[in-house]
Amino acid sequence: MINIHIETVKDTNNTAMLKIALLVVGVAYVCNAAEGVKIHCPITRMPGGLGIYKKPDDVSQRVVQAVIDDVAARLGNVLILKWKVRKYRTQVVAGVNYYLKLKVKYAGDIHFIHIKVFQSLDQKYTLQAVAPGMPRSGCIEATDFE
């Protein structure tokens, strides 16, 4: 939902025209995102909430490596031939929750899945949930696993 408030101001700086121009640009951006041009994943920063999106790095690779066998088991004991982290987010709890988007190859096809992994304070990784059949682009949300 988009809330937009425009008020007309009578001045010589054409403030109303500027606001309308900004509105048009904003609507064009939303329409392009809806058509698949670009997906914008909003980030709500709040204590205990999911953090910003991060690019794959050594940390995300280590997390997935620790649970990839469990992921294969949850997907029906498939043989995962290749996997790649696309992006991920974290949530600080009594440890860390990792929410990761993976590109995996199994059963002769490429699939996109989301996984949730918990890292305890003693640095152990536990696979919490797997959400198969996710779109190639799009956001990673805690609700993906409900």
TrEMBL record:
* Record InterPro entries: Cystatin_dom, Cystatin_sf, Prot_inh_cystat_CS
Query: For the Cystatin domain, which residue ranges apply?
Result: 62-123
Q: Which residues cross the membrane?
A: none
- MF (Gene Ontology): cysteine-type endopeptidase inhibitor activity
Q: Domain of life here?
A: Eukaryota
- What Pfam families does its record include? Cystatin
Protein name per its UniProtKB record: Cystatin domain-containing protein
Which organism's genome codes for this protein? Answer: Owenia fusiformis
Source lineage: Eukaryota, Metazoa, Spiralia, Lophotrochozoa, Annelida
